[in-house]
Amino acid sequence: MTKKPDRRINRTRQALQSALIELILEKGYDAVSVQDIVTRANIGRSTFYTHYSSRDAVFSDSFKSLEISLNMALQQDLENSRPAPSYPLPYIELLLHHIDKNRPLYRALAGQSGGALAAKHIRKILLGLVSRDISTRNLGVVLSKTTSDALTHYLVGAITDILTWWLDHKTKWQVAEVHSFLTMMITSNLESATKTGKRLRP
Amino acid sequence: MTKKPDRRINRTRQALQSALIELILEKGYDAVSVQDIVTRANIGRSTFYTHYSSRDAVFSDSFKSLEISLNMALQQDLENSRPAPSYPLPYIELLLHHIDKNRPLYRALAGQSGGALAAKHIRKILLGLVSRDISTRNLGVVLSKTTSDALTHYLVGAITDILTWWLDHKTKWQVAEVHSFLTMMITSNLESATKTGKRLRP
Amino acid sequence: MTKKPDRRINRTRQALQSALIELILEKGYDAVSVQDIVTRANIGRSTFYTHYSSRDAVFSDSFKSLEISLNMALQQDLENSRPAPSYPLPYIELLLHHIDKNRPLYRALAGQSGGALAAKHIRKILLGLVSRDISTRNLGVVLSKTTSDALTHYLVGAITDILTWWLDHKTKWQVAEVHSFLTMMITSNLESATKTGKRLRP
Amino acid sequence: MTKKPDRRINRTRQALQSALIELILEKGYDAVSVQDIVTRANIGRSTFYTHYSSRDAVFSDSFKSLEISLNMALQQDLENSRPAPSYPLPYIELLLHHIDKNRPLYRALAGQSGGALAAKHIRKILLGLVSRDISTRNLGVVLSKTTSDALTHYLVGAITDILTWWLDHKTKWQVAEVHSFLTMMITSNLESATKTGKRLRP
DNA sequence: TCCTAAGCGAGACGGTACGTCTTGTCTTCCA
DNA sequence: TGGAAGACAAGACGTACCGTCTCGCTTAGGA
Predict the structure, then answer these.
(1) What gap in Å lies between CA B23 and CA B82, rounded to an integer?
(2) Mean pLDDT value of segment B151-180
(3) Contact between B158 and A157 using a beta-carbon 8 Å cutoff
(4) Rounded distance, CA A94 to CA A182, Å?
(5) How far apart are CA D122 and CA A3, in angstroms?
(6) Which of B189, B194, B195 to mutate against chain A (most A CBs within 10 Å)?
(7) Contact D157 C157 (CB under 8 A)
(8) CA nearest B45: which of B16, B22, B9, B18?
(9) How far is Cα B95 from Cα B126, in angstroms, rounded to an integer?
(10) At what angle do helices C91-101 and C55-80 cross, to 10 degrees?
(11) CA of B162 vs C1' of F19, distance in Å?
């Protein structure tokens, strides 16, 4: 028999996450201490530790909600575009819009340990999506496991760096332009990999 | 008239750098404290701070020697391959060998704040080299400044992620295979960018 | 509504004070560092600083208990001896006994910065008592404010130096003998001041 | 064969002493470090330790010159007033003038460890003078050794405290008034001691 | 509706590491 | 080659966080 959870718990976690985000925007991730968070959230120090093991855990939890909604949207998008996606990686656009909307937060994270954490999460999401994409396209048939792994990492690295670069140069390009650029580049990589794979395994 | 520097200074810095590297290999970057370093190096705490402002500064200094020697080698390589480099980014191979040789160190850095620092340095070096490469190939003529910037970051991100990935999967590929894969991918990106550039600016 | 104080606080302060006294007796005041105290007391360094601002503050606090009990005893004594104290400064005897009992501690303080601190406290106590005594005797009526101030400091200085001298020469005199000597000297000063005062203000 | 002392030595010591005095006047004794002194004096750190063992040693050395000149003056004064000094302790006046002239320095020392040092020196001088004075007056004949010791410390303590008190209350009394007050008090103590001594040893 | 378990704030506590400061020794370089 | 300059080892200082803990108060949810 599962007990009904105390509803205060979510209130507390929400308060901590909000406080953290506020503080990141104010001072940057690295300057935020656990003490800062609990003070801002009007939460006792020990209460913090009953919910989270560290500042990073709060951040990851905050991120998880983004992660879930993003994943859901991407999933949706992926299914809609079947069976023939006219261009590769349709979910990239979603990601671009997500970053565009949360630019102040991502800017406050940039170059700090929170940035690395966020990048890790995004990379993880992308890795899953890109690798599935590559399988779907039957590139796996013509590529060895290692090669398709490498291809995946190549693309993920390229995309995340473009995102990071774009984060600090919004003025230069709109979402559409970044998207178009990435589409072009990724397409060329996919084609090149296909050709080479075919040549190697006729 | 500049004063002759006390030769003890270099001895001290060398001792600190060696101690740091040793400790990174033993415990991982994040677990190494300033006190650990000075204890291992038999250096007084205050002496540490007369030479470096932080642990990261020691690490960056250690890295600088690598950076210089790498840059020199790359420079050399670049000049030798003129006027017609048969394949793009000849210096990539050097980088791969460098990482292959220092694999234990890079592994100890991976995922820790030292890893981010190292990645930052390598990224900086690559950014310089790749952007110069792109100019040399006269892609600058057919590409807008922003597009060639994006291309540069695309390639740099792709390369660094491949390096990171390879760092943890040595068994899969030898240097030659990584090099060949990168050459293929980068070539396709460069060609694609050229074509698109030409189409846009006939 | 006043908050109930955490009872751990007194435990901690008591531990710090005891540790300090122990260490003074072992090494002398000046050789005792904050680190020594917290190590001996099994107290965290930061906890020390939440309670006291320095080693001297701990010592002053230790002293305060003596101060209070001494003052209370002196007060008591003063009231009992009314209305006609047969000899001046009856509380001196108490002070002599106090020092006699704590001789090892005072010896360990002598000549060190703790000695100066202790002397300052005792001087302060004496200043209060002597100046009140002088007022009580109506010397204030015949003496100007400045003269009675000077008289107070004259007597306080004389008494404290006798105490210090006696501290290192216990063998020579017992409490009774010091007391009798001081009574004689002080009496002569009080009489002389009275006469002179009367002569000046008939 | 005694070596001719290097003239530079005195120059160096003089520089260190002057620097110390300057710094005491600027920041107070306790805030002055060895590094401060050598920096101000334009002297190398090791050179400092060639000449003095500590900051206090420099101060004592500075003081010694005062001490010598004071002692000489006192000696002179003592001889002139023979065989029948009309009032006790003629040298007190000299001391008062000395303090009056160096008031800024003594104020900067007050309450700090330098103050204790200075007081120690002055006390030592006074002890010598007072004890000789008491012998001269043949009080030694009527008083036991211990009693005359006690009398000496009683007077010395009283005088030094009056000096300290006066240091911070210049406005109240001029040298003459302090001198007259001390004469009165001391006289009464000497007479009282003589009477008691005679009564005890008829 | 009460009452009991839990969530919670407050903050004391033992620790660890920090960067600064001062001391006294020891090495290097220069005149 | 002797002494000034200053690099160095040592270690205390006061600060900032950390993660654990103890303590009462409040409050939600089941009896």
Answers:
(1) 42
(2) 94
(3) yes
(4) 13
(5) 82
(6) B189
(7) yes
(8) B16
(9) 10
(10) 140
(11) 38
Q: Residue type for C43, please?
A: I
At residue C121's C-alpha, the angle toward residues C102 and C40, to 5°, is: 55
Residue-wise pLDDT tens digits, A117-150: 999 999 998 998 888 888 877 777 788 999 999 9
> Cα(C40)–Cα(B100) distance, rounded to whole angstroms?
52
Q: Which residue has the tokens 């390598």?
A: B122
Give B31's DSSP letter: G
Helix (H) or strand (E) holding D72, with range, is: helix D55-80
The model's pLDDT over C173-192, given as tens digits with 9 standing for 90+, comes to: 999 999 999 999 999 999 99
The percentage of chain A sitting over the pLDDT mark of 70, rounded to a whole number, equals 90
Return all residues near C143 (Cβ < 8 A) that are at least 6 apart.
C134, C151, C193, C197
Greater confidence, C76 or C35?
A: C35
Distance of alpha carbon B83 from the chain centroid: 25
For the record, the structure tokens of B143 come out as 């590409």
In A137-174, alpha helices (H):
139-142, 145-167
Neighbours of B80 (CB within 10 A): 9
pLDDT tens per residue across span C15-26:
999 999 999 999
Name the residue among D189, A101, D69 with its Cα closest to residue C154: D189
Chains that touch D (3 or more CB pairs under 8 A): C
Lowest mean pLDDT among B136-140, B157-161, D149-153: B136-140
CA distance B75 to B68: 10
CA distance C55 to B183: 68
Report the C-alpha gap between C52 and D150 in whole angstroms: 39
Q: Do D192 and C193 touch (CB under 8 A)?
A: no
Q: Residue C100 class from Cβ within 10 Å (0-12 exposed, 13-18 middle, 19+ buried)?
A: middle
**Helix/strand/coil for A85:** coil
pLDDT at D38: 94
pLDDT of A138 reads 75
Chain B residues within 8 A of A116 when measuring between CB atoms: 113, 116
pLDDT tens column, D156-172 = 999 999 999 999 888 88
B188 and A184 in contact by Cβ < 8 A?
Answer: no
DSSP string, C100-163: HHTHHHHHHHTTSHHHHHHHHHHHHHHHHHHHHHHHHTTHHHHS-HHHHHHHHHHHHHHHHHHH
Tell whether the torsion through CA atoms of C2, C6, C7 and C12 is positive or negative.
negative
Q: Say how far apart CA B142 and CA D117 lie, in whole Å.
A: 83
- Averaged pLDDT, B108-134: 90
pTM over 0.85: yes
- Spatial neighbors of C92 by CB under 8 A, at least 6 apart, are C159, C179, C182, C183
User: CA of A18 vs C1' of E5, distance in Å?
Assistant: 29
Spacing of C-alpha B21 from chain mean position: 17
Question: What amino acid occupies position C159?
Answer: I
Burial class (CB within 10 angstroms; exposed 0-12, middle 13-18, buried 19+) of B128: middle
Query: Tokens 């030898």 label which residue?
Result: B174
pLDDT value of position B37 = 97
- Interatomic CA distance for residues D67 and A80, integer angstroms: 100
Count of positions (residues) in chain C: 202
Residue C153 and residue D163 in contact, taking contact as beta carbons nearer than 8 Å:
no
pLDDT tens-digit readout, C30-43: 999 999 999 999 99
Chains that touch C (3 or more CB pairs under 8 A): D
pLDDT over threshold 90, residue C14 = yes
pLDDT band at residue A202 using 50, 70 and 90 as cut-offs: very low
Distance, CA of B140 to CA of B148 (rounded, Å)? 7
- The answer to whether the C-beta of C55 is closer than 7 A to strand F is yes
**What's the rounded Cα separation, in Å, for the pair D164 and D99?**
10
